[in-house]
Amino acid sequence: MMLAMRILMRKQQDGLEGGLAQEVANMLVLGNDVLDPGSMGPLSEWMPESVWPKIKGLEALKQFKGLGDIMQTDYDDWEHWFELEYPDLEPCPGDFATSLSSFDRLILLRMMRPDRVQAALAVYVEETMGSAYVNQPAFDMIATFEETNPQTPVFFVLFPGVDPTVWVEGAGNKLGFTMANGKFVMISMGQGQEKPAESCMERFGAEGGWILLQNCHLMEKWLPALERKFETTSDGAHKDYKLMLSAEAPGLSYQKNMPESLMQVSIKVANEAPADIKSNLRRSWAEFDEHTIERCSKPNEFKGCLFMLCWFHSVVQGRRRFGQQGWSRQYPFNTGDLKICADVLGQYLDASPDVPYTDLQYVWGEIMYGGHVTDAWDRRTSSFYLEVLLNEGIFKNYEFAEGCGFRSPNPADFQFNDYAQYIETALPVESPPLFGLHMNAELAYLVNFQVAVFSNIMAMMGGGGGDGGGDDGGGSAGVMANLLERMPDFFELIGIGIMAKPLLEIEAEGPFVVVCMQECKRMNYLLTEIKGTLQDLEKGFAGLLNMSQKMEDLSEALGKNQTPGRNPFHTCNWEFYAWPSVKFLAPWWGNLVARCGFLTNWSADLARPLVSWFSGLFNSIALITALMQVTARSESLPLDKMTTETHCTLMWDIDEADHNPKDGQLVYGLFMEGARWPAKAEVEEPVDLDGTMTGGNIVEMKLKEVLPTMPLIYIKSIELQAHWEPQSIALGGKGSGAVAFFRHDIHSYESPTYTTTFRGPTYCMLATLHTAHGQAKWVLAGVALICQSDD
């Protein structure tokens, strides 16, 4: 897509027909959210609130002039188009059906239906560049080698589940370079392997031969020496000399682990494993053969369990494509794990009269696959998969995933090749329920995909609004002036401190007053940084100050609708002083103003709020700690013996709250990902919990509702029970860690709560949510509470 845009933008510069203007390209890549879009009118009945600022921003382009007013007039037609399953395949309402170019339609889709952008991008690139840029041919190792010479190494990018050794060995067997004849050497790099690698390079440079140095990312300090050694050995080298390298990509996009010049001269091979279940299941089953089954003393049991193991391997591999809802981190599950687990299965079956399900669940889930998993919640997901799959249902025709229709065959009736045929004929079309996820997980994946695509294009294109703007208030200068005009007021900390002094002595109020004071202080730090950097930039644009790198970085971020600090190379960093967030600048600023408003109301009299905005705090854990302190003091209990539980109330509006619940605090502002909480009318048996009406249980989501809101939640401080299991949870940022206490109650789903949809290091608390379906269903669906939406 970036290549297509560059070519069309060059056409525009050269005055050729069919070019693409810079401002139009910027609209697709950067967007143009309006900070104050005005009223939505009748569109509010169906249009998400986050879409309206994007629609008003589109009006900056002449082809979309008056779009907001037209939508409000013809809102029925636009609602119909918006609700279509495939709006990218249907004409837009009204005159826009013919007036918009294919690129304009991409822009409109990105603003209104980002889930359809992936498909539309593929069509656009194919039309503009040709099908070869969309439909990738099968990888051919021999053809790759034909492009190389002694001065051109081959560099393999390592992906989870991909081992280039097999490709190299296969090509070597065909071309006569094998370990047996001494013309192929493979070295797994690690401490002490530097000299053997250099010696082999010298020998093959003179005599000819192939050398594969694996996992070079583990030898970062030695790589400059490798670079120099290759220069000397490739100069005048034997025509059959080939150097091949493999390494994992760095953990973060701005990190480097390979010398740049070595990468420039190499042919890069990036052949990622397929993410769909069918391809993974086919590849997994092909790792074995009839002889593998015959070696076991219980072939029927081995066949059934091995097929289940291949399904499990395919699911944990494919789950990665659903991002953080799939796995909080990227884990290197690979074919080696599958083969070792198959060996363990054979040994356990040979040594046991029956299938030792529990033992295998532990070895596979906690040691083999679980050995890769570092996140406690992801480890729980892996364990529940095996609990659901690895049981006697294997031999009773159970479904691998609820409602999918794909059942475990009777191993007595199936030979090895029958299973391979069964995969091809019986496996249903790929969908999130095969992984245990809701259909909306696909929607979230598609939205995140287009965000990642345009973020990468933005990062690689550079620039983007660093100019001072113009009279129309555009560019970074216009954004800067708008932000300075809407700058929230600072908090008067001295006056708040004087007001707080007597309240700190009150047992039931003091801890909450401390939280408010801490929040106001942190907000002042952030506001000081924001105002100072914006004023410096204003002076720089006016010529009163020389433009520094920090000011240049701020200008670039404002021009890209990017929260300063999101780019790790930038020296201007608002995010360092702020809360974790993945929002773009316009919605982030709206969130900042709302947080300041909440703190202004709280700090006016420092009275404990009836309902706290849980997700509106810098440190929401401090609110929970304050709650436990108050309860511990009133009950004469040690603080380290306290924890919390959560109950969903029947209140959906903060105005409905009229009291502080016993030993607890009402909070709002939370969302649920992966499921939803029923509306008040759907709750059949309300429960009076110490004077607060609660009720309901987790239910399936509605289609297209990715992050449904939660009702007011009653966080109740309680005493720890001896039989609860403590689990250490790693925290990111400045925190060191937290402890969650698993109840293992079949009527309660223990849900992680995260600050953002990025999950992982943004964990803040464990929520206990009532369930009528047990825990497994919601664990596999990746259900969690989220404090902020992405918009």
How would you describe what is shown here?
- The protein is an alpha/beta fold and 791 residues long.
- It folds into five domains: 2-133, no CATH class; 141-269, 3-Layer(aba) Sandwich (Rossmann fold); 277-437, Helicase, Ruva Protein, domain 3 (Orthogonal Bundle); 468-604, no CATH class; 609-786, no CATH class.
- It is 43% helix and 11% strand.
- The protein is built from 28 helices and 17 strands.
- Residues 463-473 have low confidence and may be disordered.
Number of discrete helical segments: 28
How far apart the termini lie comes to 24 Å
Mean pLDDT reading: 91
Number of domains: 5
Oligomer class: single chain
Number of E strands: 17
Poorly predicted residue ranges: 463-473
**Class from secondary-structure proportions:** alpha/beta
Helix content: 40-55%
Radius of gyration: 30 Å
Top keywords for this entry?
791 residues; globular; alpha/beta; 5 domains; single chain; Rossmann fold
Produce a short descriptive summary.
The protein has about 800 residues and is of the alpha/beta class.
Layout of secondary structure:
Elements: H1 2-13, H2 22-30, H3 52-58, H4 67-73, H5 75-83, H6 96-99, H7 102-112, H8 117-129, H9 141-146, E1 154-158, H10 165-175, E2 184-188, H11 194-207, E3 209-214, H12 223-234, E4 241-248, H13 260-265, E5 267-269, H14 277-286, H15 290-294, H16 299-318, H17 335-351, H18 357-368, H19 376-389, H20 416-426, H21 440-461, H22 475-485, H23 493-503, H24 510-542, H25 549-559, H26 585-605, E6 611-613, H27 620-635, E7 642-648, E8 664-668, E9 671-673, E10 687-689, E11 692-694, E12 713-719, E13 725-729, E14 738-742, E15 748-754, E16 763-770, H28 776-780, E17 784-786
Parallel strand pairs: 1-4, 1-5, 2-3, 3-4, 6-8, 15-17
Antiparallel strand pairs: 7-12, 8-12, 9-17, 10-11, 13-14, 15-16
Helix pairs in contact: 7-8, 11-12, 14-16, 14-20, 16-17, 17-18, 18-19, 22-24, 22-25, 23-24, 24-25, 24-26, 24-27
